[in-house]
Amino acid sequence: MPRVVPDQKSKYDNEEFFRKLSRECEIKYTGFRDRPHEERQARFQNACRDGRSEVAFVATGTNLSLQFFPANLHGDQRQVPTREYVDFERETGKVHLKAPMILNGVCVIWRGWIDLQRLDGMGFLEYDDERAQHEDALAQAAFEEARRRTRDFEDRDRSHREDLESRRQQDPSPGSNMANADVEHKMR
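RE: above sequence
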């Protein structure tokens, strides 16, 4: 099953959802809202160092669970994110973050920064053309494989039916004639 839609760029450019989130807008850390602020700060920094966090776009209420790794490394628990994805050193008091993902069938990269004291900042989505091309190739390969399997199935089915028909014509069994006679009798 393909993970992306057929024309990702068009969907990214034309859907209101992506148009809103492609503009830099206010974001907030949404994890552990029931905990004291100091604990939330510590948990946020630890989560970033582990390569994950939860943020929300304030204006739209869109919540995202982010993973700060290259697209091909999602889910590898032993991996530590590089500075390209989690950068505590670029600006004092802030962490700059990058998270590639497939969102609503479109390859995007979430980019933003969060103030380590206030736990808010700015973020946006951008279209990930390189990954989109890769995912399109995977989807096309999956489609071709499904088409090949369907063709193989149809060929085997046709061959099986032809084989059965030739056997029936060569050696008609008395039972099959009686069944046909019963059907003809019922139709009258």
